[in-house]
C-alpha cells in the first residue's frame, strides 16, 4: 500500500513556526513563566508546524487563581441568559472561522479534513449551541416536605474546573467539556494534549472575541506530567473532567482525594461489534470497517473487536480484509483521503508492537499492519483473523487501525466474549432478530449500544462507560449535573 501524499505541499508555510503560540491566562495571551516552548508536528510529514508555550506549575497557579476570580466575579453572577448569548456568539465565530479551525485540527492531529468537516467541527458547534441553550434553563425544583415550610432546590455551579483533553478529538472532546461547564457558570483551566494544542488555543482567542470575561477560560499548554499533574492536584480546583488513558485516570482519582474534587473520567474501550449470521453482512462489515478505521482507530469507542458468528465468520474476515485493502490513505488535507497517519511516533511504535504481539500469539494477519513510507506515521489498516478472546490484541486497547475478528457459536458465547474485557464503553450488534438484539442491548456491559449501526454519538444522549472505561456521563442533562451541585433551601412559613 502506498500513500497518496503530495510532499510538494510542504512548501506551504507552517502555522507559524517563528511565533510561539502563547498560553491564555486571565484574558491575556502570555508566554510561560519559564519562557520555554515545544514543537508541535504534522503527523503526516513530521514537519514542525508551530511552537507552543510550555507551561509549568507557576502558570497553572496563575490560571487557577484567574479562574477563581472570574468564578467569584463576573461569570457566576452574570444573568444566565447573558452567558448563553456569549456562548452563541462563540458559535457564530466558530462558524465564521470554520475552514480555518478545521484545517488547523487536520494539520495538528493528522486527521483527514473530510472527517473533521463531517464530524469533529459540526459536533463541536452542535455541542456548544446545545449547551448555550441550557444556560438559562438550569433549575431546581420545589419539593413537598412539611406544611409549615417551603422547600426547594437550586443547582449551583461547582466552581473551577480542570479540563484535560486527549489528542484524538481535541476540538470535539474539548467542547464536550467546555460547553456544559461554561453554560453552568463554572470557570475553566484547560490543558490540551501536548500533541494537539492548536485548535484549543484558537477557540480560546475566539471565546475572548465573543465576550467571555477574562479568566473564565484559561488554557495552559504543556506536558501532562507537569501541567496536567499540577492542575488535577491543585487544591483550588473543584472538579476534573478527563478523557484519556486509564493509567492517568487512576492518578487523577488519587490526586482528587486531596481536596475531595469531583471527577469524571472517560478512558476508552475495547468495544465489540457483534455480527450474527442473520445480519445484513454487507452493511455490517461496511460499518465495522469504518468503526475501526475511522480516525486511524484512535477512537475510544472504536469497534476494535469484531465478533462474527461461525457461519459467517469467513465472509466477515474476507469482506473486512477487502475493505481494509482499498481504504484511501494519504494527505489529511486532501478531501478524498479516508485514512491519515496516527498521531505520533510513540503511538505508531506501540501499534506496530501490537501487530507483532498478535502474530506471536498465533493470530492471522490477513492484511496491513505495516508502516507505510518513511515520513509521517502511516500504518496500513490491519485485520487479524483467528483471534482468541484471551489474546492481548483482543483484551488491550491498541488505539490504532487494527481489528481483531473473533468467532462465536451462539448468543451466550457472543455476550460472554463481548463482555469479557476490563472496558465497558460501547458495543454494536447486527441481526434481524428483534428479540436477540434487545436481549444483547440489555446484557451488554456498555454505556452505549448500537443496533444495526455503529459509532454514532449525539450531544443529546449520555456518553461514557464504567470500569476501565471510567465513570460519569458526558452530554445531555447528565453533563449539567456534572458541573453543578444541588442545594436544598428551607423557608419557615410560620415566622
Ligand atoms: P494520556 O492519558 O497520557 O493523555 C491524555 C491527556 O492527559 C493529555 O492531555 C495528557 O497531556 C494528559 N496527561 C498525561 N499525564 C498526565 C498526568 N499525570 N496528570 C494529568 N494529565 C496528564 O494518553 P496518551 O499517552 O496520549 O495515550 C495513551 C493511550 O491512552 C492511548 O494509546 C489510548 O489507549 C488511550 N487514550 C484514550 C483516549 C480516549 O478517548 N479515551 C484518548 C487518548 C488516549
TrEMBL record:
<feature type="active site">
    <location>
        <position position="266"/>
    </location>
</feature>
<dbReference type="InterPro" id="IPR016163">
    <property type="entry name" value="Ald_DH_C"/>
</dbReference>
<keyword id="KW-0560">Oxidoreductase</keyword>
<protein>
    <submittedName>
        <fullName>Aldehyde dehydrogenase (Acceptor)</fullName>
    </submittedName>
</protein>
<comment type="similarity">
    <text>Belongs to the aldehyde dehydrogenase family.</text>
</comment>
<dbReference type="InterPro" id="IPR029510">
    <property type="entry name" value="Ald_DH_CS_GLU"/>
</dbReference>
<dbReference type="InterPro" id="IPR015590">
    <property type="entry name" value="Aldehyde_DH_dom"/>
</dbReference>
<feature type="domain" description="Aldehyde dehydrogenase">
    <location>
        <begin position="35"/>
        <end position="489"/>
    </location>
</feature>
<dbReference type="InterPro" id="IPR016161">
    <property type="entry name" value="Ald_DH/histidinol_DH"/>
</dbReference>
<keyword id="KW-0558">Oxidation</keyword>
<dbReference type="InterPro" id="IPR016162">
    <property type="entry name" value="Ald_DH_N"/>
</dbReference>
<dbReference type="InterPro" id="IPR016160">
    <property type="entry name" value="Ald_DH_CS_CYS"/>
</dbReference>
<dbReference type="GO" id="GO:0016620">
    <property type="term" value="F:oxidoreductase activity, acting on the aldehyde or oxo group of donors, NAD or NADP as acceptor"/>
</dbReference>
<dbReference type="Pfam" id="PF00171">
    <property type="entry name" value="Aldedh"/>
</dbReference>
